[in-house]
Design goal:
- By secondary structure, the chain is α+β, with helices and mostly antiparallel strands.
- Helix content is 25%, strand content 43%.
- The chain is built from 1 helix and 6 strands.
- The strands form 2 sheets. It has a 3-stranded antiparallel sheet with strand order 1-2-5, with no helix packed on it. A 3-stranded antiparallel sheet has the order 4-3-6, with no helix packed on it.
- The radius of gyration is 29 Å and the shape is elongated.
- The model has no long low-confidence stretch (mean pLDDT 87).
Amino acid sequence: MSAVREQLPDGRYGRSADERADRKLKIVGAALGVLFLGLMGWFGWYYVVDNKISAELIKFDVVSDSEVQVHLEVRKDAGVSGVCTLRSRSEDGAEVGRKDVRLEAAAGRVDRVYSIRTTAKATSAELVGCTAR
């Protein structure tokens, strides 16, 4: 009984089309991977180095139907002034209050409680964001 060979002999007819396509896909994948890592590094650098103000909402307390108190902690570079925006929402998700808090340039760390006046009963409060001025 003789064995039947289904494949072509190795190296006799050059590379197959599949091997060439695999090589091209590897090159394209490597280039896209390097591009992705470069973008992630750039975004990370921008977030860590260029971020002059970092804030965190510690807690909030619904005082009444028309007021929410927000405990905000802000860390920033000395000499940088900025604005942080706070927002409160009702149970259905509608915005019922908004306040812009000005941060003076002198202090490097601000830890305060701010009051937000609302148009209806709020159920949550959040820090929208901070920007340096």
